Structures are given as C-alpha cells and as structure tokens.
UniProtKB/TrEMBL annotation:
The gene is cpfC. It catalyses: Fe-coproporphyrin III + 2 H(+) = coproporphyrin III + Fe(2+). Pathway: Porphyrin-containing compound metabolism; protoheme biosynthesis. Belongs to the ferrochelatase family. The keyword Heme does not apply. Fe(2+) binds at residues 179, 259. Its EC number is 4.99.1.9. Its main location: cytoplasm. PANTHER family: FERROCHELATASE (PTHR11108), FERROCHELATASE, MITOCHONDRIAL (PTHR11108:SF1). This is Coproporphyrin III ferrochelatase. One of its GO terms (molecular function) is ferrochelatase activity. It comes from the Bacteria.
Length: 312
C-alpha cells in the first residue's frame, strides 16, 4: 500500500481563550508585547463577538471535510492543520508529518489570493521545515479563480442582494474587500491586488453587478502606509454621493473571524448606520463544500505538476 500524501492546511490562527490573547498578539508582533491599551482594545473586540473567535472550530471542520473529499474516491490523504500565530505552529506540524511517515505533501493556505507577505510567508516556513526533515513539500500559490470558489461566492452574493428592497437595489454599491497590506508590496510587483480584482471582476460579471468597487480593511497599526482606500472612508464617500445601501463582500476572507465579525459586522455596520446606509454582508464560506472542492482542485493541480507517487 502506498503511503498517504500529507496535506498541510495552513491558517492564521486565533487564541482559544481570552487568556491567550496577549501571547497571540505578541507572536504577531514578532515577540514585542503590546501596550496595555492595545491589549485591552483587542480583548474588548473579542468580548464584543462573544469572547473567542470561531476560527479554530471552522478550520477543524474545513480540514475534516477536505480529508473526506480527497479520500472519497479511494485515494489516501491525511490532512494536518498548521497555524501561523497559534498552536499548532506550521513547523511543528511539518515535523509531526515526518514522524508519521509522510514523505510527500502539499501545503495550501486558507487564503485564496497570493502575497509575498501572507501566503508566501506560510509556504516559505512550511517548505523550510519540510526540507529540514526530508519531506517533499509542494505548495498551492493561489486558488482565487477556481470555479467552485467563485460558485460559492456567487451564491452568497445573490442571497445577500435579496436583503435589499427593490428601491434600494436601484442604487446599491457592492464593495469587495480584503485585508490591507503595507503599500511597499506594490514596488515588489506583488500579485495580491491584481488577484483580488480578478476575483471581484469575475463575480461582478457572474451576477451582472455594474456598480461595484474594491476597498481595503483591517489595516495594521504601523507607521508605514497601507493599501487603501479604507472601507470606512469608502462608506463616507458613498454617503456624500447619495448612496443609502451597500453590500460588503469580503472576498479575501473565507471564514468568520475577528476581521469579519468585528471589523465588518460591528464597526462597519455601526459606521454605516451613522451615515444613513443600509449595510449588509455576504455570509462567509466557512466549510462550504464548494470551497472545499476548490481546495481539492488546487491541490490536484499541484500534484499533477509534482508527479507524486503516493495516494493513488
């Protein structure tokens, strides 16, 4: 029997309790502890969404469905979860894969769009850890134009549009968004902005949305400039030009977590209310089977390029 192919499913990670927030935030800040004010603010945001993010449970379900789907036709795959900023950390999981006898693996990040500062960091860490233990690791770079991924987003767009009245839909702005990154990625020719616009354009064409734009959200608090325009500033401009309805479609995120449940559902919704705008958000994909199918297709593409011998 051939050895199974390992699948390293990588995600950002999130604290499992409020007691873990400081260590989590310190890890994000590369070992620099946050000030008490910043820590209190972050803890306050977690409390506002119920105390903890559901991201860990969602990622567990995504991994379960991914393994089930990959093995549905009699193949042999074993899915492992590795986190960037919380346990189990990516490098530790790669070593465990090797200890389990995995010789070939595919890494895939739960972020559809590639950036050297996001997906590139995950894959570099995974491949360096794999090299150290003699494990062959190939990684999916992006999966932002997989048909099944677009199918899942299209369905959510159509559902969300139904929450607006016929009159509101006559002057409705659809705003696609993703997590902002430092502007210096532009000088590197980073594909992140282009890939996000490709996804947004494809969805707009599928649903025949003519009035749409792209915005950035959840920028970090550093001195350097981040990609804009910011979603809240876009909302201000919409109000000034007479819009009273806006549909948010965060195409850069695939699961409910703090940047969606707080930044959009609480902060952006409150800002919209103050501006007299009816605000709605498309539902997150979470463990939607169509998104899982998109991951499977992306994994198989990498396998085909790599000529792996296991799993079949």
């Amino acid at each position: 029997m051939n050895k199974p192919i390992g699948i390293l499913l990588m995600a950002y990670g999130t604290p499992r309790s409020l007691d873990e927030v400081e260590a989590y935030y310190t890890h994000i800040r590369r070992g620099n502890k946050p000030s008490q004010a910043l820590l209190d603010e972050l803890i306050g945001r977690y409390k506002a969404i119920g105390g903890v993010s559901p991201l860990n449970e969602i990622t567990d379900e995504q991994a379960r469905r991914l393994e089930q789907t990959l093995n549905a036709k009699g193949s042999q795959y074993k899915v492992y979860i590795g986190m960037k900023h919380a346990e189990p950390f990516i490098a530790d999981v790669v070593r465990r894969m090797a200890d389990d006898g995995i010789a070939e693996a595919v890494g895939v990040v739960l972020a559809p769009h590639y950036s050297t500062m996001s997906v590139g960091v995950y894959t570099k860490e995974a491949q360096e850890a794999a090299k150290a233990v003699g494990l062959e690791m190939k990684c999916v770079s992006s999966w932002h134009m997989q048909d099944a991924f677009l199918d899942a987003l299209e369905a959510r767009l159509r559902d969300a549009l139904e929450r607006f009245s016929e009159d509101e839909r006559r002057q409705l702005k659809v705003v696609f968004s993703a997590h902002s990154l430092p502007e210096r990625i532009l000088a590197l020719g980073d594909p992140y902005p282009k890939q996000l616009l490709e996804t947004s354009q494809a969805l707009a064409e599928r649903v025949q949305i003519r009035d749409w734009q792209f915005a950035w959200q959840s920028a970090g608090r550093t001195a350097e400039p981040w990609l804009g325009p910011d979603l809240l500033l876009v909302m201000d401009e919409l109000a000034e030009t007479g819009y009273h309805a806006m549909l948010s479609c965060p195409v850069g995120f695939v699961a409910d977590h703090l940047e969606v449940l707080y930044d959009l559902d609480i902060e952006a919704r409150q800002h919209a209310s103050q501006k007299g705008i009816h605000f709605e958000r498309t539902a997150s994909l979470n463990a939607d089977q169509r998104m899982i199918d998109a991951l499977v297709a992306a994994i198989h593409e990498v396998e085909g390029e790599s000529h792996f011998t296991g799993a079949r």
